[in-house]
Write a structure and sequence with these properties.
By secondary structure, the chain is mainly α. It has 2 domains: 82 residues, no CATH class; 274 residues, Heme Oxygenase, Chain A, CATH 1.20.910. Helices cover 60% and strands 0% of the residues. The chain has 16 helices and no strands. Helix 2 crosses helix 10 and helix 4 packs parallel to helix 14. It starts with 8 loop residues before the first helix and ends in a 21-residue tail after the last helix. The C terminus is likely disordered.
Length: 375
């Protein structure tokens, strides 16, 4: 993956620096920003995403030494302060007693009235709109579970065991073809999409990057440990029914078993994870760390709020007859291989609109995927 195109003065300054050799020069104070809400501030969210990505897989055109260089860490710290302040403006504190964390999580999820994105994708979405949805989700799902795995070495006892149980399922119990990120790659290939890590970062808006950046904010910092666990719990507790709808929607459009397997797997797996996350993970953690009980609810509420805004954004664009994706950068449009990919996507679109299944695009890493069974 190469550095994405900048979207404003801060991301422009960062990408320019990252193309040079790492140095020890600290960052100056960052301008106040665009004035946009943090969830829709493209410059803020892209800059944060790049800073975080330096500690995941990095970029082919960036020296690994930039990860902890003063310029990057100082810039990230300033933007994280702005990001956290925006989240605190978005989500009110939820006081809770440690013994009531699991029950309060359930109440919070039950009271959530997010937009009907899953219903739309199940019943009304066109093939093009469904592919756009998968394109958005690729920013996180191609590294699924990684942001929450930062919490493992920070836990002990029952909470640690519970998180490892959840994450082991996410990583396919050590089987490559069962890893959820690999299942998602198979879905992308079935839809004629580029399954390369980070392939569509230039195409997704700020709110899509915010979904990923929220997990990274919580995952990177020990002080946000409770929030990271609460976010994971909300993620698992709200996953099963929407994924059933996503799978049914893709079948309606002609998707085959390879295309829908990612969604179908989450219907059953996340129904189990829901209980583990609420009780064994968050409940145990709150009892062992009573001062952090409210952080668990804050993380969960932030996750629900950001996902809701993501859903509203996509539905608003589609209702207005527009694509939910950003225009492709001009330089990328003429890159080698793009024309071939565009032709493949067009072919898949025609097949989905006609109700015919798209031909599966198989890679060696998907070998054996048809033998997959839900654990």
């Amino acid at each position: 993956m190469r550095l994405p195109h900048h979207r404003g003065p801060v991301s422009s300054a960062l990408t320019a620096r990252l193309r040079s050799e790492p140095d020890e020069v600290a960052v100056a104070p960052v301008p106040a920003g665009t004035g946009l809400p943090v969830l829709h501030d493209d410059d803020l969210q892209l800059t944060l995403w790049i800073c975080y990505e330096l500690s995941y897989r990095g970029f082919d055109d960036v020296d690994a030494g930039w990860e902890d260089a003063p310029f990057v860490t100082g810039l990230r710290r300033q933007l994280e302060d702005r990001w956290a302040k925006g989240l605190q403006d978005l989500v009110a504190p939820i006081p809770v007693e440690p013994d009531a964390v699991a029950r309060t999580l359930a109440d919070l999820v039950r009271a959530d009235e997010g937009p009907p994105l899953a219903k739309f994708l199940q019943r009304r979405a066109s093939g093009e709109q469904f592919r756009e949805f998968v394109t958005h989700r690729s920013v996180y799902h191609l590294k699924e579970a990684d942001p929450h795995s930062w919490a493992i070495p920070r836990l002990s006892g029952a909470a640690k065991a519970a998180l490892i149980e959840i994450q082991a399922d996410e990583y396919g119990q050590g089987r490559l073809e069962r890893m959820h990120s690999e299942l998602f790659r198979a879905t992308m290939r079935s839809l004629g999409l580029d399954d390369g890590y980070g392939a569509y970062v230039d195409r997704v808006p700020a709110v899509t990057l915010a979904v990923s950046n929220l997990m990274s904010l919580f995952g990177f910092h020990r002080r946000w440990l409770g929030a990271s666990l609460g976010h994971l719990a909300a993620f698992e507790m709200t996953s099963s029914l929407p994924n059933r709808r996503y799978g049914n929607g893709l079948r309606r459009l002609g998707g085959d078993t390879t295309a829908t397997r990612f969604f179908d797997e989450h219907v059953e797996a996340d129904a189990v994870h829901e209980q583990i996350a609420a009780h064994d993970l968050c409940g145990s953690f709150a009892r062992e760390n009573p001062a952090a009980a409210a952080d668990v609810l804050f993380g969960a509420a932030c996750g629900l709020a950001v996902e809701a805004e993501f859903g509203r954004t996509l539905l608003r664009q589609w209702e207005e007859g527009r694509s939910s994706l950003r225009p492709e950068p001009p330089s990328a449009a003429v890159a080698g291989g793009r024309a071939e990919t565009a032709d493949l996507v067009s072919t898949v679109a025609e097949r989905l609109h006609s109700g015919k299944a798209a031909p599966a695009q198989r890679h060696d890493t998907a070998a054996g995927i048809d033998d997959f069974a839900v654990c």
